[in-house]
Design brief:
about 290 residues; alpha/beta; Oxidized Rhodanese, domain 1; 2 domains; 5-stranded parallel β-sheet; 10 helices; about 15% strand
């Protein structure tokens, strides 16, 4: 039973947050990570904590490290989801308990906040929302920022893991073979989908996939999610599917696609957690290119 401000939607506006900022049992979470290019030309990421401290964050916001604290350090691939014990400990360390209303944002296109939102829901907690437009829209509106590190008293967070939020490679193989009735959505960047860009050892996308990049489900300037009518157009080829599985390189952007589908009311969505990192590593797994 939550005692924080009521969240009537998985998406809250900057005005809603400004109105409730500082309310009891409301915790705002910055989940940003920073992209960079390695010397070998491959993309990678590092914690956004330093940027959060120096460049500023929404007043009172705590920082959630998706790369280290909210991923499995022993996973075979980056961003492998944590187990229930690790997730509960990481959430409790942020000062969030089971009576807290949680609003998550990032400084990118919403994929990091969507990932944390998806993790919360997969571990049985629904009183969490994504800030529409994140830090980008907040800054465009010239709303206040604080600098420095915010730390709330640690508490205990109870989880109850739910089924159906994640699928593995074998499940996706079943979709590709036509043995499982589900649609595939690839949220990787457009040039990765076509095979023009090759950030991994092999190029392309999983056969039969719809392209819905994380950058294309938000408005260009504000990074707010597109109106429902436009999202419907983007996802139209799969909306009649019984089930939809989203993926990308490492299941971060895939969470953004899953979040967008939830805004459209689709209730049977899963994320392929190891995504193309795992699929590409198997030379027997088919990839499609369109260049």
């Amino acid at each position: 039973m939550t005692s924080g401000p009521a969240l009537s939607s998985p998406l809250v506006s900057t005005q809603w947050l400004a109105d409730y900022l500082g309310a009891d049992k409301l915790v705002v979470v910055d989940a940003s990570a920073i992209a960079y290019t390695q010397p070998n030309g491959k993309p990678s990421y590092f914690s956004g904590h330093e940027t959060y401290i120096i460049n500023g964050h929404i007043p009172g916001a705590v920082y959630a490290d998706i790369i280290d604290e909210f991923s499995d350090p022993d996973g075979r691939y980056p961003f492998t989801r944590p187990d229930a014990t690790r997730f509960a400990a990481a959430v409790g360390a942020l000062g969030i308990d089971n009576e807290t209303s949680v609003v998550v944002y990032d400084s990118s296109v919403g994929q990091w906040s969507a990932r944390l939102w998806w993790l919360f829901r997969s571990f049985g907690y629904d009183n969490v929302a994504v800030l529409d437009g994140g830090l980008t829209k907040w800054n465009l509106e010239e709303r206040p920022l604080d600098t420095g590190h915010i730390e709330l008293p640690a508490t205990t967070f109870q989880v109850e893991e739910r089924e159906g939020f994640w699928v593995d490679k074998a499940y996706v193989e079943g979709i590709v073979r036509g043995e499982i009735d589900a649609a595939l959505v690839c949220a990787a960047p457009p040039k990765e989908f076509t095979g023009e860009a090759v950030p991994r050892s092999r190029a392309g996308h999983i056969p039969g996939s719809l392209s819905a990049p994380a950058s294309r489900v938000v408005e260009r300037e504000s990074k707010a999610f597109l109106p429902v009518a436009e999202l419907t157009t983007t996802f139209a080829p799969v909306l009649d599917a019984t089930r939809i599985v989203t993926y990308c390189g490492g299941a971060i952007a895939a969470s953004s696609a899953a979040f967008a589908l939830s805004l459209l009311g689709h209730t049977n969505v899963a994320v392929y957690d190891d995504s193309l990192n795992e699929w590409v590593a198997d030379p027997e797994s088919e990839l499609v290119t369109t260049v």
